[in-house]
Amino acid sequence: MMDDLKTRLKEMLTSGAIGMVIGYGQKEIYMADGSREYRTCPVFLSRDTEIDRLVWNRHCVQNLVTYLTKEEYKESGKIALMVKPCDLKAIHVLEQEKQIDRKRLFIIGLTCKGVMAEKMGIDEGHLAGKCIKCLDSSGKSSAVCTPDEADIVIETLPDGDMPPKGKDISSDLEGFEKMPSEKRWAFWQNQFLKCLRCYACRSACPMCYCEQCICDMSRPQWIDKSPHLKGNFLFHIVRAFHLTGRCVGCGECERVCPMGIPLMLINQKMIDTVKDLYGYESGKDPEQAPLLSQFKMDDDQSFIK
Amino acid sequence: MKKIKDKPQESEDLLLEKDRLWQPRIVAFLCNWCSYAGADLAGTSRIKYNPQIRIIRVPCSGRVNPLFILRAFIDGADGVLVSGCHPGDCHYSTGNYFARRKFALLKRLIEFCGMDERRIHFSWVSAAEGSKWSQVVNDVVNAVYQAGPFTGFDLPVFSKETEIETPADLCKQGPERFAYSIDLMSRTGKK
Fold first, then answer.
1. Which of A149, A204, A221, A265 to pair with A175, CA 20 to 30 A apart?
2. Do A304 and B156 touch (CB under 8 A)?
3. CATH classification at residue B121
4. Would the CB atoms of A241 and B113 count as touching at under 8 Å?
5. What is the tens place of the pLDDT at every residue in A58-82?
6. A193 is in which domain, residue-wise?
């Protein structure tokens, strides 16, 4: 199946039907002890001779939709993109917000059976947090996600046995919410104090595409730029709020965070809140109106005096 | 990992003194067409209410960016009140409906982060509700008064045993520990 895909992509690249392939490829890494390891990373291929680098395995955890809104790829013609079923939700949100043109996109849908959790390039040896939810929703742990509305579907599944499940974020969330509010504040104080303001979370997020981020503005400067507690707190709350009703829970922000801040805890809370209050699920349908640009007459107002 | 020690105990007299001197600082965002006029009515009707509130007039409750609320806390407010027209009465027809969604989500978000729910308030006050306005303000001031001064952005007090001696030790202990030491050195003025 992969071979068919590669032949087809080569043809498309030579004929100029697509300008670039963004997919998963392998990279050789030299370790400190002299040994070599292979890591799966995003690759950007614009020549047909490079197509053989594409792979599909359990380490394809990255969400490649992020690259679609980056300036460099806006002008590169039609893009063929390797998309897992969960990443498709991010495409829906971008379509909904009129950020991408679906006609400029050739979606290579991957049939997925869960990918491995990875933290800063290190394999954690269990399923990624997002997969647990995805696989549970279809009732059985060995479920297979199939992408619909892809232009071409790869039915090959990654080799190997099912990796063990990791910890489920919703149980973390439950425990966290039981803590008294001072403890919760102290927890986030400690987490946000670690933040270096490297903005890796912002770069990795498929939804953070603003040309000028509010965090970069200096006139007026709403959010302090130096990494101290006030600025960090504001940055993280604003980041979470800007993703409310848009976050699709791909977990990229947490995966790329060099300081290990559990950003998915806060994102998952907002995903649950939005579902609870408004029955809204982001990325479900590209046609639906964004959460905050619509309202219902009977929205909850029990908190308003 | 970092530990937060309890705040140092202050003597009872000092606490009482502080208690007496401290007045809550509350920022109120009022919509021009209803709540601001309501507050105006309360004034012209000579209704007395607590004076610890600072009013900022905005065109509509829909104009209140959640960032305003957060920024108020950063800049030293102890509580925030946002007030607008009743649903259906908005001068711009639907501004407060959109605002309602934003506020509901913001409230959930910052309460999840551990903000005291007594510090953030929302209300609908119409131009004819001068007495409701005074009631709302009194309630808010009481609630914030009970919650006490907002110290959420003060640096946590680290306990002695977690302090680290030299930067070389820090590097051995991984990035998490290192970040903590930077905090310690640059922020708490470590000797």
1. A204
2. no
3. 3.40.50
4. no
5. 888 899 999 999 888 877 889 999 9
6. 169-293
